[in-house]
Each structure stands twice: as structure tokens, then as C-alpha cells.
Design goal:
Length: about 130
């Protein structure tokens, strides 16, 4: 886990609560994400704090890259969940559409993605696509 994490009482990067009770338990392996949306939010947080190991652990083996290099100058600023289809505690698959805002070298950008997840001994990220505008 990266050294420069938010404090347990600080806002979680995913925007839902405080880090210590929101995404930190998933990132440090104490509590798996109970839903596809929770996994997507914890993965966003992993991008925000630079936790490539968590991203690889929660990526489905069929689509997971061998390595993952995060862009050190990219700062993830805000997550907006637009749609959730299935992905609940009793589902085997789900989709989450989101917009993630970022900044690098003073320029702002965003990632708009519809991510697919499956539940196989816990939720895993499969892949994502850019929704049609």
C-alpha cells in the first residue's frame, strides 16, 4: 500500500465517506467490496492514492495486464457515478457508469467509462468502454 494515504478521518477520494471506514478496508484487504459499485469506488481510490497492487488484485485474470504503471503526475479529483446496473450482493455481474475527473500539469480532463464487473470469490473488474454520447 502506498505511503501517502489520506488519514482515516479524512474524506475518502471516492466521495462517500471517511477513508478509514469507506475504501481503506478494501484496499488493505480487511473487507472485500460487497458490490460492483463499491469495487469501482475502491478502484478509483486506488488510482487516486497510487495503489497499483490493489488494482491488479481486483482485475479479472482474463483481462488483467501483466504490469500496471500509474501516471505519477495525474491527480484524480472527483468521481461521479452516473448509472449502476445489477452488481448487488446477490448478483454475479454488474455494470457501473462513471465520470472521473483528473488534472495533470494544470490541465483538467475526465474519464467517462462503463465498467463491467463479475463476482467470482469476490467482485472483479473485467473491462470498460466509453459510452456513446
Amino acid at each position: 500500500m502506498p505511503d501517502d494515504l489520506p488519514g482515516d478521518d479524512e474524506a475518502c477520494p471516492c466521495g462517500l465517506g471517511v477513508f478509514g471506514t469507506c475504501c481503506r478496508p478494501a484496499l488493505d484487504g480487511r473487507r472485500p467490496a460487497p458490490t460492483a459499485e463499491a469495487l469501482m469506488r475502491s478502484r478509483y481510490t486506488a488510482f487516486a492514492v497510487g495503489d497499483a497492487a490493489y488494482l491488479l488484485r481486483t482485475w479479472h485474470p482474463a483481462t488483467r495486464p501483466r504490469t500496471l504503471t500509474l501516471e505519477p503526475d495525474l491527480r484524480w479529483r472527483r468521481l461521479v457515478v452516473l448509472d449502476v446496473v445489477a452488481g448487488g450482493p446477490w448478483d454475479d455481474a454488474g455494470e457501473v457508469e462513471f465520470v472521473a475527473h483528473h488534472e495533470a500539469d494544470g490541465a483538467r480532463g475526465l474519464l467517462h467509462e462503463r465498467s463491467r464487473f463479475v463476482r467470482e470469490r469476490g467482485w472483479l473488474y473485467v473491462d470498460g468502454s466509453t459510452p456513446a454520447s
